[in-house]
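Email to the structure team, subject: Regulatory protein YycH-like domain-containing protein model.

Hi all, the expression group asked for a predicted structure before they design truncation constructs. Nothing fancy, just the C-alpha cells so they can compare against earlier work. One-line instruction: predict Regulatory protein YycH-like domain-containing protein, return C-alpha cells.
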Amino acid sequence: MQWGQIKTLFILCFLILDVFLVYQFINKTEQAQLVLLPDTSIEEQLEAEDIQLQNLPNDTPKKTRIYADRYDFEEEDQEKLAERENQKSSIRENGKILTSVFNEPIEIDLESDKSKISSIVKEEIIFGDEYEYWGYNEKWNVLIFFQLHEDNPIYFNESGVVLVSLNEEKTGLIGYLQTRLVDVKSTGKEQDLIKPIQAISTLFDKNQIYSRDTVTEFDIGYYTLVPLQEGGNGVQFFSPTWNIHVNEERNYFVNGLDGQYIAKEEDEFLERMNKKKTELEQPVRGGES
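Reply from the structure team: attached below.
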C-alpha cells in the first residue's frame, strides 16, 4: 500500500473518531441537563417562560370517583314539555334520548353573558337546573350544556348533556337534544386532589402551556373514566378532574387523583352526537307531543 493511501486512511479514521467524541460530548451534556431539571421547581420553570398564574386556589378539596346510570325519559316528561305549547318532543333510543323542535325559533343573542343565555335555555327544557352552560361551538352551531353533580359539571359525556341547535342566522334556538344521568353515587372515601400547581406541571410537561400564557382560572368537575360503548346502557364511572383555563380561551383537563392529562375532544364529541341525532330522525318510542 502506498504512503499516500495510508495517510488518507489515517485522516479518515481520525475524522470518524472526532465525530464520535463530539457525539459523546453532546449526549453527556444533554444527560447532565436532564439530571439538573428536577432540581428546578415548576414555579421557576414557569417564571422562566413568563407564564402567569391567576386565581390559584389555596385549598385542595377532597373528592371521590362517582358512578351513575342513564335516565329513561318517559311520556310524563313529554307532557311537561307539551304544556309549554312551543315545541314538539320525541323520546328516542329506548328512552335514553329526548329531542325537541321549537315551533318558532326562540330569540337568542350570542353576545349576551353566559347567565342570560343559560336562563333562556333552562326555561325551555326539563330538569334545567341540573345543567350548566359550557359555551357555543361555532363549527356545529350549538350551545353546550353539561349536567352537574353537586354543582360540578360532568364534562363531555354523551349521557349527561343538552345540545341546543341554532338557526343559520345564529339568532334563534330551533331545537335540542337532551340526555340525563341519574342515581349518582360515590365509589369510596374522599381523597385529596392533586394540588393545582401539580396539574399545571402536567400541562407544562405535555407542552400544552406556552411562553407568556396566563392561567386564568381553575375549576373542578368530572370526566368519564371509560367511555360508554356504542349502544351501551350500563353504569358509567367518572373521576374528579381539574379544568384549567388558559388566556380565557383554552381549556385543559387533568385527572384530579392521578394527575394524568386528559385530551379534550370537543369536536369529536359533537361529531358523535350529531351523527346520533341524524340517525334518530324517526321516533322510536312515545311518538310526538
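The helical segments are 3-36, 42-48, 75-82, 114-122, 196-205, 266-279. The first helix runs from residue 3 to 36. Ping us if the truncation boundaries need rechecking.
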